[in-house]
Input
Amino acid sequence: MTRPATARWSLFLFVLPALAVYLLFAVVPLFSSIVMSFFDTDGEAGNLFVGLSNYVYLFTQPVVSARFWNALANSAKYFAVHVIVEVPIGLLLAALLTSGVLRRSEGVYRTLLFIPATLSVVIVGFIWRLIINPLWGLVGFPLLGNPSTALTTISLMSVWQYVGIPMVFLYSALLAVPNDLVEASRLDGASPWRIFWDIKFPLIVPQFGLIVILTFIWTFNGFDLVFALNGSAPGPNYSTDILGTFFYRSFFGSSGQVADLDIGATVATVIFTIMLLVTGGYFWLVQRRLRAHMV
Amino acid sequence: MTTLDIARPQTIGASRDARRWTLERIVVHVALIAFVVLALGPIFVVILNSFKTTPAIFNGPFALPTPETFNLQGYARVLSRGNFFGNYANSLIVTLSSVALTVVFSTLAAYALVEYRIRIVPYLAAFFIVGVMLPIRLGTIPIIKTMVALGIMDTLLSLILVYTAMSIPLAVTLMMTYFRTVPSELKEAARMDGANEWQTFLIALPLVRPGLAAVATVSMLPIWNDLWFPLILAPGRANQTVTLGVQQFVGQFLNDYPALLAALTLGAVPLVLLFTVFSRQFIRGLSQGYGK
Output
């Protein structure tokens, strides 16, 4: 064993570079956002503590607060489409890949199905915009131009792109299911359907839960696809405005909205709080109980 | 236990009896092929049409280019009007530097977090692991202030620092799983022979080489494809990455379809190729990194 003094000193030196960069450019900025949300930093008086007045502005200024709730509702819809469409298809693909009837083709399918996830959202957005362009004749209806279909259309583009991620996650989880269990019930005459739902799926429920919560985090951080397609004030009439674009406007400004770094920090803090509550709640309530069942 | 072990290869052999096309196999292949077509079809349509003339694109979007409709004008216009070589160079510099820093820093940190049993270590490890879920974009405003204070706003360096910070948590988490597989006898033997901690680390390093590949591939993708930070931290024309360059080019040439499709193709091809080559490492990295 290493002597404690040596160990302490080496630990410090080995961890320092990673810790410093991670702290300075990820953790500290996130928490200074929270601090900033209680200050007025661009006034003439320098940094002025203003208590909750940034929050009061965000939630009571009629236009800003309406836009915020609209963006929150749209982010929730964006997430819902991913959970309802992307995760189940990912599960289906993972189940097909691990059904035991594929041989060498398993790896080929897995790689090909993941390719859209390697594209940048800018490219995905334009590929789909071209394909659903009425000029091409595939769809005669302006899916992106109509407030009632625009957000779902963008969500489905994102689902098309990222379905490989839950697939790969659940695929790895399914590979870890002991083969003995599966073979035993196969010999008992169980159908592939029963084998999946009675044996395999219960064993990967924790990973299934994890991919749902990661999808939540990723979709609530969403920005790129909406921005690439519709810019920073995503229309029609803000119907595709999500928290990411709302946050961007709050500190970058756009036509009709003044940029304010402190309000931006306030928006960031509110989004962070929502994510923390949902993620924290999930881990305390669901994942812990699942672990207890597994043991 | 032994009977099971002996029986298994036979049952597997029997139930998957080699190349027999059972109904189950056919259904699985047909379903997967359908999904592959859905996944790759749109990409092919874009690549295909990027080699055609504008009238040919609209007259038959799904037709292969013929000698009459074959056309490289789109590529010519992208390469002359856009700043593609500059954008590629920027993306390469940013991605390679960030990935290199991430690999080096996270390997060092993960080694120490696995190796030294001090009371603070579990907390430090947890601190990195939690970062996997941290929405770093929400810290953008203080990041802008930091970059302004450091005088590196609108430089590639600002992107490299942020991307390294963004990639470190997943990389450390991943590398820890790999270092746990290094037998401690190896490290103890090295220390017995008088190796210092740094030399012991270098002896363990070759054993985690698959981990290095996994970390590199997993961190590369979100960096290359990111739009948020290039847009905010390095929007100047000289510092644009491919993702931002394509975004702006496409915004300006909305009606020049061959050029647009060529820009999309040029933006997509490098990572698709890279991923296809390293897909195994990538998939392993992704599932192990987040699976903790």
Residues 84-290 of chain B form a domain with the MetI-like fold fold (CATH 1.10.3720.10).
